[in-house]
Specification:
The structure holds 2 protein chains of 2 kinds.
Chain A (H helix, E strand, L loop, with lengths): L5 H29 L5 E4 L4 E4 L11 E11 L5 E8 L6 E7 L5 E2 L3 E3 L6 E7 L7 E2 L2 E7 L7 H4 L2 E11 L1
Antiparallel strand pairs in A: 1-3, 3-9, 3-10, 4-8, 4-11, 5-7, 5-10, 6-8
Chain B lengths: L1 H32 L3 E13 L3 E5 L19 E15 L4 E7 L7 E7 L5 E2 L3 E2 L5 E5 L4 E14 L11 E7 L1
Antiparallel strand pairs in B: 2-3, 3-9, 4-8, 4-10, 5-7, 5-9, 6-8
The chains are: A alpha+beta, B alpha+beta.
Amino acid sequence: MKTMNPVERKRCRQQRMQILQCTVLTVLMFLASQATAQPIDVRGGNPTLNITAGVAGGQPTPRVNTATSIRYWRQAAISKITVRTTCPGQSFTLTVQATGVTRGVAAPQVTLVDGMLDVDFITNIPSAGTWTSTTPTLRYTASATFAQGNSAEEGNDVHTVTYTIQVQ
Amino acid sequence: MRKTRTMKSGRSLKKLVLFHALILCLFCFVGRATAQIYGSDFHRVTVTVSTLTAVQVSSGSISLSITGAGAVAGQDQMTVVDQTTNLLWGTNRSTRKITVRTNLAAPQFTLKVLAFNPTVGTAMPEVTVSTTATDFLRDIGRSSGTCALRYTGIALASQGIGNDSHTISFTATAQ
């Protein structure tokens, strides 16, 4: 095995240090790019809407839930929020609408259907101004017909509702 | 020899720096390519529907009076018909039917009822009401509907005069 002289050893050490620095810098830059604040946040947990009454000659009484909200932050470009759901074996009807929207324009009530594509939920969210974030309410409405049956026979509908903020 | 090794090391370093630069560019490119989406979040929303059964009559009380106005001489039986009320129901359970019964154990006169023109289900033949629940309308499972209630009061001249006060109950039950 050939031994290096002190000058070569020093140069090697320097190169190793440079490589290490370069690697650390790359990793740090990547982490920094990923470490930006969450641009959208669904708050209030996982709500359950129970339909427990019905009208003879009519239909079961819809149930409304406004216990959850969605917080979103100002982005660099004009943006929008879309919504979609997955609910395998869906039996009943669920709609959602944003209320109390002060930044952007709330779309009309969206009917959530298993496997749906992203549908506009809040549009024209401004990129300018002094605001940083806003938190409108999510108004869910569950409804069913007598013909659609009940949870004991059909099972509950469990929706995974996803909100996405993106460039408009 | 030493110079060659140093040059090789320099080239390796350049390659490594280039590699890292490429990685960074790739991250930036991927970042740009997905910049259309800033982020997303989700939660779970559960919808439950209880087993529901609602049955309702459109009016609280009706009165059938046999006054003898239409009585035919020589004929013992007199009848009166009322079809001013409706039955409404809604049920989200499978295989349901509606039965009818009265609370009056020993009526003086006869009272019959028929589900007339139901929007859903199959009407049974005219039922003489008794304290035993009797099928009135079948095959209504998971539906919302209405039918007219056609009551027929029957009295015989030989039964004399009097009043029968019935509380009629309609019940949706398993078929």
